[in-house]
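User: Okay, second chain of the day. Same drill as before: sequence in, structure tokens out.
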Amino acid sequence: MDTIVHSIVEGLSGKISKEFIVFLVSMIPLLELRGSILAAGFLDGMRFLPTYTAAVIGNMLPIPFILLFIEKIFTVMKKSRRLHKIPEWIEKKAMSKSEQIEKYGYFGLFCFVAIPFPGTGAWTGSLLAVLLGMNLKKSFVSVLLGVMTAGLIMSLLSFGILQAIF
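Assistant: Same drill. Structure tokens below.
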């Protein structure tokens, strides 16, 4: 992930603002918020609050679209001869991580998104909420709170705030 993020930062540095780079990286699946805060580390002079704000907003921007349209998109893709395996693979991969959410509901969804481990995050959490038939408004709130929490965890670690405290 470091290499991808570093390449994006190098390619965009000097062309757009540092905050916008963080914002854009946070919208990319798999990189999401964690990648965007890592990107901020490659950008000289990034501060906690602008980084956190850009990362959270960017990571949350695609979420309503995922919650509202992913089933329709997957249905169309499944009818295609060339694309039908993609949604099946994504669904299978996502469902392999659904145990926590099935067991604890919206709190499980929050934790799934909030704890910054590989393969967890807003995109996968939102997809799982849809696949599990969860209420979209409650799912959005759980994902938002999870993203905000993950952003705080990653920012505290990345900006050395925890090191300064302890």
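The chain has a mean pLDDT of 93.

User: Thanks, on to the next one.
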